[in-house]
Amino acid sequence: MLKIAIVVLLLATIASLFSGLFFLVKDEGHGSRLVNALTVRVVLTSITVALIAWGFYSGQLTSSAAW
Fold it and tell me: What is the structure's pLDDT at 14?
């Protein structure tokens, strides 16, 4: 369940990234829609990082890297 939530948040972050690009091109840098897209992207990324940290702390996520 945690992995699904992380993937959904990452997809939402990518969608917010492209909406910010669209607003940058369409509004030519003026207006608040670009700032709102950036705010949403920062919040989604913060939640994603917090979920990943919580997953490692709780043991639901593990690293199988050989190094």
Answer: 95
Owner of token pair 């997953």: 55
Contacts of 64 (CB under 8 A, 6+ apart): none
User: Nearest 5°: CA angle at 24, between 37 and 47?
Assistant: 20
Q: What is the pTM of this model?
A: 0.83
Report how far residue 18's alpha carbon sits from residue 29's, in angstroms, rounded to the nearest whole number: 14
| pLDDT of 43 strictly over 90 | yes
Torsion sign, CA atoms 12, 18, 21, 22: negative
Computed from CA positions of residues 21, 22, 25, 31, in that sequence, does the dihedral angle turn out positive or negative?
negative
Instruction: Yes or no: say if 44 and 34 are a contact pair by the CB < 8 Å rule.
Output: no
